[in-house]
């Protein structure tokens, strides 16, 4: 596909890199010459310097022959205008990033009236992810599938856990709840484990299953910090904090927000009246301790500064027992900090990239099944994909043990019209099912790609 990206900030750069890796022809537009030079020097894309809402600039980028235009600038209004011009000029599909909470209740209307293929709101998706993590504090990551009926949790095996020195087959055969260990990270290496894989303390594992079953499994593991979150501290009165606070308040979590900017605090108090807003510099340790850090159940650093988010995450982990979530705005930091004790890491770039790649895979696929959901788990080294099974699909009607599946791949869950099955070799995929596949391989566009 030929894809045009307007906006070469952190998100635009990450999306361009991901789409090039998916073998698409990408052109980027930005009015900053330095940004265009940076992305064209490091990613195999064409660059155009100019205003992405300009008719002439879009023509120069080849919009008349493009399949998709993605507007990812920092301005919601500019993104929407770029998409309007592209729709009139090139008749291509369009995706707009819209992040202002003011538009939160209007996204369906905006999408319909402007003919957008997708409205991207990574801040809102991040807010839901942070709230899910707070409801399961022992998890490092949580991703949902099958309309919330299936979760993949990432947790670390503690010492003296019942999993230690047992194979995955032994664990699964002796545990009644329907869960599946579908990926393991050890010493920096990630694998899709066979049944004879021996688990050790310190391993980070991905567990697939229904939320209730997963919670029972994690509780039996003896991981500390499984209690319910009743109070949370958010650092930064930003738009993403606004989304997080509203989502948490809906789940009866008491929210306290810190920001040194008085104007932002006043705005936040108006938009989220049920939150306690404190106009104070949270980078000063005494401020957090005085305001109850040690008593909080959850702590999320949501400023625009990755450095501040990381430092405050470390401070919270060392001075409290609360669930810590650290927002990372620049993906380059993730590999550097993944071994630091800063709790769960959320990345706006990763959420944006996953949403766009999932959509592009779906519209680029002319076969019987589509990618319904895509997450990159285990520090972005494993793809967890949910496929919709259509008619005339090559995997339908055969037991899994008779399918010649590719290596480093595991069929983790089958959703039979709402009935969730953790599969074995005798399980059969049927038309109308959704199937969750976990793999270290890349580029899967269709369920048939799992077969050699």
Shape: globular
The mean pLDDT is 89
The biggest sheet amounts to: 6 strands, parallel
Helix count, DSSP H or I runs of 4 or more residues:
14
What gap, in angstroms, lies between the N and C termini? 25 Å
Number of domains: 4
Rg (CA only): 23 Å
Any low-confidence stretches, pLDDT <50, length ≥5?
A: none
Structural class per helix/strand content? alpha/beta
- Sheet with most strands: strand arrangement: 3-2-1-4-5-6
CATH topology of the largest domain: Rossmann fold
Strand residues, percent: 25-35%
Quickly name the level 1 CATH class of the largest domain: Alpha Beta
Helix content: 25-40%
What does this molecule look like?
The chain is α/β, with parallel strands linked by helices and 452 residues long. The protein has four domains: 2-120, NAD(P)-binding Rossmann-like Domain (Rossmann fold, 3-Layer(aba) Sandwich), CATH 3.40.50; 138-221, Regulator of K+ conductance, C-terminal domain (Alpha-Beta Plaits, 2-Layer Sandwich), CATH 3.30.70.1450; 231-350, Rossmann fold (3-Layer(aba) Sandwich), CATH 3.40.50.720; 367-450, Regulator of K+ conductance, C-terminal domain (Alpha-Beta Plaits), CATH 3.30.70.1450. Helix content is 32%, strand content 26%. It has a six-stranded parallel sheet, with helices on both faces. Strands 14-13-12-15-16-17 form a six-stranded parallel sheet, with helices on both faces. Strands 7-8-11-9-10 form a five-stranded antiparallel sheet. Strand 9 and strand 10 (189-191) form a beta hairpin. Helix 1 (10-21) packs parallel to helix 14 and helix 6 crosses helix 9. The longest helix is centred in the C-terminal third of the chain and has 16 residues, at 348-363. It is globular. The two termini are 25 Å apart. The mean pLDDT is 89.
